[in-house]
Amino acid sequence: MVLSVLRQAAAGLRVLLLMTVLCGLAYPVVIWGVAQTAFHDQANGSLVHAGGRVVGSSLIGQDFGGPLWFHPRPGGYDPLATGGSNLGPSSARLLAEVRLRRSSVARTEHVPAHEVPPDPLTGSASGLDPHISPEYARQQVTRVARAHGLTEQQVRELVDSHVQGRTLGFLGQERVNVLRLNLALAAKAG
């Protein structure tokens, strides 16, 4: 009887060791290798380099303040605290924030309040969206061109060259990555 229990325990231990090697070592190494080979940029965080150093990720928004830069969506962009505000469409607080943001953007960009697109008014669901609409980027052209001493046409062409189409041609909307656009702007402005 004791011998039978010891054989079963030994068999169980062999299966445990085999599964540990297969599932705990071999499988992760294979998946890591495939990711590094086929999806190297994505597997490493979609890092953006400028001047020989990492300046951010193309997947995570960053704050850009002041008149020199294209502004992202509101949110704060804390990668350790992601998520929306949980304020719904009937929230008086959300409505007050949207009104405040609308008047602020209208004042900053010198446009009528009713022409402010939705993306500068509300944060993204994750709080990390790195993109803005082409409409919002174009709305910022005058301010950014003036701040950098460039012509509006130069900056508008820069925006247009950074418009990304819909994913797979039919998912989502056209968008502009604010980090990549601001890096191109910095390079153009010198």
Automatic annotation (TrEMBL):
TM stretches of this protein: 12-35
Membrane-related topology note: Single-pass membrane protein
GO cellular component: plasma membrane
UniProt signal peptide: none
Keyword Disulfide bond in record: no
Keywords: ATP-binding, Cell membrane, Ion transport, Membrane, Nucleotide-binding, Potassium, Potassium transport, Transmembrane, Transmembrane helix, Transport
UniProt keyword Cell division present: no
Subcellular location: Cell membrane
Residues covered by region (Disordered): 107-132
Highest rank taxon of the organism: Bacteria
Single GO MF annotation: P-type potassium transmembrane transporter activity
Biased composition (Basic and acidic residues): 107-117
Annotated family: Belongs to the KdpC family.
Function: Part of the high-affinity ATP-driven potassium transport (or Kdp) system, which catalyzes the hydrolysis of ATP coupled with the electrogenic transport of potassium into the cytoplasm. This subunit acts as a catalytic chaperone that increases the ATP-binding affinity of the ATP-hydrolyzing subunit KdpB by the formation of a transient KdpB/KdpC/ATP ternary complex.
Alphabetized PANTHER family for the sequence: POTASSIUM-TRANSPORTING ATPASE C CHAIN, POTASSIUM-TRANSPORTING ATPASE KDPC SUBUNIT
Subunit structure: The system is composed of three essential subunits: KdpA, KdpB and KdpC.
HAMAP family from the UniProt entry: KdpC
Name of the protein: Potassium-transporting ATPase KdpC subunit
Source organism per UniProt: Streptomyces xiamenensis
